[in-house]
Amino acid sequence: MINGKSWKYGDNVNTDEIIPARYLNTTDEKELAAHCMEDIDQDFVKKASVGDLIVAGENFGCGSSREHAPICIKALGISCVIAKSFARIFFRNCINIGLPIFESEDAAAEISDGDNVQVDINKNIITNLTKNKDYSFTPFADEMKDIITAGGLMEYIKTN
């Protein structure tokens, strides 16, 4: 079960906004996390807490295919991303590193900045606890769910 405060963004949040290219000269996850969402929300790192989640509109993670974008989100301690839709390469990069992402048009539209949100990955339900409303999300294929639960593709491979 995932439970956290939501941080809301719009459509077409690209990987340069998630982690600006000027910081790609490091592979240190903590350093990357220190600049998460910096070009779209300068104070995001200061405001967000471990366990919080990001909610966005269409095409979240569009742009370049860099793995740094989902890595910096996960390294900051963001528990998941809920969006209307994801760029395909970003989607797969999230699965590969074990960052849970959920596609739900209604949840993305109706969850507001600051709402307390809960996600039950086993029941495919997102609950906005602030507004007392449930939403369904597109379920994962079993193998993808296993990869996320394991903490990413490398951890999944170690156990299978």
Total of DSSP H or I helical runs spanning 4+ residues: 8
* CATH fold topology: Aconitase, domain 4
Q: From N to C, what is the helix and strand string? A: EHHHEHEHEHEEEHH
Write down the overall mean pLDDT. Answer: 95
Q: How large is the share of residues in beta strands? A: 15-25%
Helical percent range?
25-40%
What structural keywords apply?
single chain, 160 residues, alpha/beta, Aconitase, domain 4, 8 helices, globular
Short description:
This protein is an alpha/beta fold and 160 residues long.
Q: How would you characterize this protein structure?
A:
- By secondary structure, this protein is an alpha/beta fold.
- It has one domain (2-159): Aconitase, domain 4 (Alpha-Beta Barrel).
- The chain has helices spanning 15-18, 29-33, 44-47, 68-76, 88-97, 105-110, 142-150, 153-159, and strands at 2-8, 53-56, 80-83, 101-103, 116-120, 125-128, 133-136.
- The protein has a seven-stranded mixed sheet.
- Helix 4 (68-76) crosses helix 5 and helix 7 (142-150) packs across helix 8 (153-159).
- The two termini are 24 Å apart.
- 36% of the residues are buried.
